[in-house]
Amino acid sequence: MLLFSNLKLNDTEPIYIQIKNHISDMINKGLIPNNSKLPSTRELSQIFNVSRNSVILAYEELKSEGVIYSISGKGTFANSQNTILNNAWSINWDNLENDYSKIANKMDIVKSEIPWKSDLISFKSISPNGELFDMEELKKSFLNRISLEGHKILNYGYAKGYRPLINYLLGYMNTKGVDTSNKDILITNGFTEGLDILLSSFVEKGDYIICENPTHNTAIKIFKALGLNIISVNINKDGLDFKMLKNKLNNFNNKKDTKIKFAYITPSYHNPTGVVMSPENRYEFYNLMKKNNIAIIEDGFNEELLYSSSHIFPICSLDNLSNGVIYIGSFSKILFPGMRIGWVFGDKSIISKLESVKRCKNIHVSFLDQGILYDYLSNGGFEKYVKKIRKFYGDKFNFAYECVKKYIPTEYILGDGGLHIFLKLKNIDSRILLSKCYEKGVIFMPGDIFYIDGRGYDTLRLGFSRLSFEDIEKGIKIIGDTIPDLVQ
To answer: Which of 172, 171, 127, 134 is CA-nearest to residue 372?
Structure first.
């Protein structure tokens, strides 16, 4: 109503013309949006304190010019479509786009890779099978948190996170053999935000970072978007190439005015290879980085699924009473990925800095989600769930591994468990293979997206977590049967 109340009527023009011109001007300026409802003639006559007949005449004039229209029983509406078309404003956003956005778009595999469809056997996903979620326990946790916290949990929270969940996770890290004295936790929107906040806080464009090759595609995307120089260390059939790592460190140490800021590593069920780093290699890697004063970012990816061996402690357990390792954890690949809850564990001084950066970016992670997750984790259901999924995914892994050995000719197969298997083919382009398999109703993740240096054309990742045993065998057999058609 404020749009109409500012009309000052004069004595020189007919009132209905003044009203008509005022409304027409508001619509042409876009101040009354297209198809928005106008006040009734009665309401407008009261606003202007004029005869209703004057408003009726103004509306009739506007209708005849196509500026407004009426629908019987519903009212009168603005028609500014022609005005919008004639006054279109076009900015060239391609010219304004920065390097960060260009890299993010170029490396966005959701846009560039073959999309999932319900009629496909898809080996692309490595997210958990939602059928295993204990929904009844989750419902109880939701009701319990709402009952205990009331409206408080629906209001603004703290950037660092929901304190009961932080305390639970500190205790959880203790069970992994990690000393949590002088350490703290920041709750994040999953692993991705944790890594992004950490790097955004401590790196400059042009800095160097060590990582495995291949590695997590999202990590590569973040590194490149931030303008980092990546020092890649190969993973082969024997795991991380320590000889290559030592040579690169020696060569780099001879350079002046440069510093490797971080080493990023995923020691358990590495994505994409599925390899679990041995305790001895974890110890060697930690001491190499310590010797060269390079901080370690440890990705705690899928540690909970260590079902094929006794528990192996994370690298950060070797860093007790020190501050050289920052651990990023998440349950997203085994539990409720839609909640997007992860955590960064590190020295208190580091977490304090990250807390301020987090507050600057998006204030905090949903306290409702954190509260529900805490309730679920703390009531004992999580331990039962993990025990169940270890066997479930362990059986699937063993079955898929045997199917690959039976049906697909490979140079080697990598994977110690988890939710996926990595294959190196015998001089077969996996993207050509993918195209042929897609025609037969099967898709997988080509391995080249995980490599930093353009390698991996002959590799692929098979995720099996959401597939039935029947579809695992059927899909792998189709892949194997397609390969002979590509052999020269």
So the answer is: 134
Mean pLDDT of the chain: 90
Cα–Cα dist 273/461, whole Å: 8
pLDDT of residue 30: 81
d(CA 6, CA 16): 16
Residue carrying structure tokens 């995914």 = 393
Distance CA 55, CA 43 (A): 10
Query: How open is the CA angle 345-349-355, to the nearest 5 degrees?
Result: 65
Report the C-alpha gap between 312 and 450 in whole angstroms. 25
Cis amide leading into 214 (omega within 30):
yes
Q: Which residues pair with 325 in a beta bridge?
A: 296
Taking each helix axis from N to C end, the angle separating 52-64 and 15-28, rounded to the nearest 10 degrees, works out to 50
Q: Which of 317, 345, 352 is nearest to 187 (CA)?
A: 345
Length of the chain: 488
Contact 296, 326 (CB under 8 A): yes
C-alpha distances (whole Å) from 267 to each of 36, 133, 193 are 58, 26, 20
Burial of 94 (0-12, 13-18, 19+ CB in 10 A): exposed
146 vs 149, 338, 379, 382, 455, CA distance in Å? 5, 19, 16, 20, 51
Closest CA to 423 of 410, 432, 440, 435: 410
- Residue entry with tokens 């020189």: 12
Mean pLDDT over 253-280 rounds to 89
pLDDT above 90: residue 308: no
CB 162 within 8 A of CB 187: yes
Which pLDDT score, from 0 to 100, does residue 309 have?
47
Looking at the predicted structure, is the pLDDT value of residue 92 above 50?
Answer: yes
Return the sign of the alpha-carbon dihedral for residues 259, 327, 196, 275.
positive
Return the top range by mean pLDDT from 103-117, 131-145, 456-470. Answer: 456-470
